[in-house]
Amino acid sequence: MVTTTRKEPARKSSAKGSTLSGIKATVKEAAAEPTAAVETKVLAAQVAEAPKHERKVDQYGRAYATGRRKNATARVWIKPGKGKITVNGRDVSVYFARPVLQMVVNQPFAVADRAGQFDVVCLVAGGGLSGQAGAVKHGISRALTYFEPDLRPPLKTAKFLTRDPRVVERKKYGRAKARKRFQFSKR
Question: How many folded domains does the chain comprise?
Fold first, then answer.
């Protein structure tokens, strides 16, 4: 049986680095003289900071945004006004007759505490009424952040700026629907 001995690397022993006070002194020296790597990290951290959101308004003083939900897409323009909301040329109470859908459309204004301060014009296409109401809500939320960037945090915490990824699951072959099986007959 052959035994091998493991050689350990030679350690530099310095009187300064062997004690706790020596280690502290070394750390202080390193902190006093910023190296190129530290400066690079600082610059990278400054670049990586969150971008400042600027106001995006057209020549008529309107903010434009697109909202989506399920298969619906809404193009939304907001401008300062008295709170009138028009959807596809009709009043919101006519287009979205159900009170729940009207509440969904007005949610961004309630969260941002701007009820009755903006006029909204939107064109919606695709999907059903529920998806269209969600698309208008998403579009209004985004347009509000373009008009007033300070409203971004409350709308973001309410998750109104996030596109809802839930869509209808596709039908699979060999099944009646997406998950429903065909009727099983024992005999």
Answer: 1
Q: Which domain holds residue 146?
A: 63-150
Query: At CA 55, angle to CA 119 and CA 101, rounded to 5?
Result: 35
- The per-residue pLDDT for range 21-67, each reduced to its tens digit, is 777 776 677 666 666 555 665 555 555 666 678 888 889 999 999 99
Task: Tell me, yes or no, whether 77 lies in a domain.
Answer: yes
* Cβ–Cβ < 8 Å for 148, 55: yes
Closest CA to 139 of 80, 60, 63: 63
pTM: 0.71
For position 106, which CATH number holds? 3.30.230.10
Residue 142 to residue 164: CA distance in whole angstroms: 13
Residue 114 domain flag = yes
pLDDT reported for residue 52: 79
Quick one: DSSP state of residue 151?
A: G
**Domain assignment present for 49:** no
Q: Is the dihedral of CA 45, 48, 49, 54 positive or negative?
A: positive
